[in-house]
Amino acid sequence: MKQWLVLLTAFAFIFSACDEKKDPISPENVPTVPVITIKGPNTQSTDTKAQQIKYVAQTMNGLQGLFGYIQDFPPDQNGNTFTWVGGDDTYSETITATLNANGTFTWTVTLNGNDGSTTYNNFVYLRGIVGADGSFGEWTFYYENTTNISWVFEVNKAANGVVTASTLFYYSDGTLETKQEIVNNPDDSGEYRLYYTTGTTNVLRYKAIWAANGSGTWEEYATDGTTVTQSGNWN
Question: Which residue(s) pair with 149 in the sheet?
Fold first, then answer.
């Protein structure tokens, strides 16, 4: 998670430093990344479990702001592809957003050159896809200078208003390590689940459920995914 924070800070600096005045493009034609708000329990409780879930939700919301800062910088447009480029003579970062036939946008972040410590050659650091109606997004990050998936962030808002968001973390060999998921219901109740992978099976190791008023319960599970080892609640 630290890696994307460092990269985004660099993006913001490079683009602000290298911005050139261009002819404005009609705002309605410039791709944006809709934000689907993700919430933890609506409680003022200082309970550690409740606060941890709220932190995860905040982090997921932050992930959806990946490209918010580039809205201030007009892109180059070539047909259905919009491109932002920042950098200098030795290092560049290129962001593209391509409008697909079904109305979705595909986003990529590509690195080239040497950033002072690492050399890149058309390294695709990130790929993403956003729904035409803003109802879903999926972002895939890759291990440095490889095509191996490092982690994935997914968010979806169903027609009934239920929001589901998850992060999936992978080992460098492509094996899923952990998955965490938040579900938000329209009445502000929700659920958090954490899975660890054993072989090819996702095993539930922790679950928390909260009511509309923010009070909740939690359980931790043994490696079988069913035996409760600890439990508690918050108000």
Answer: 142
H, E, C per residue of 45-88: CCCHHHHHHHHHHHHHHHHCCCCHHHHHCCCEEECCEEEEEEEC
Neighbours of 148 (CB within 10 A): 13
Quote the CA–CA distance of 223 and 61 in Å, as a whole number. Answer: 30
- Kindly state the helix (H) or strand (E) to which residue 217 belongs, with its residue range: strand 216-221
From first CA to last CA, the distance across the chain in angstroms is 30
User: Would the CA dihedral through 196, 109, 131, 59 be positive or negative?
Assistant: positive
Residue type, 69: Y
Q: Domain map of the chain by residue range? A: 2-18+33-234
For 90-101, how does the pLDDT look when each residue is reduced to its tens digit (9 = 90+)? 999 999 999 999
**Pick from 134, 1, 128: nearest CA to 56:** 1
Q: How confident is the model at residue 73 (pLDDT cuts 50, 70, 90)?
A: confident
Strand-pairing partners, residue 183, are 164, 191
So what CATH class is 2-18+33-234?
Answer: alpha beta
State which of 75-79, 189-193, 195-199 shows the largest mean pLDDT.
189-193
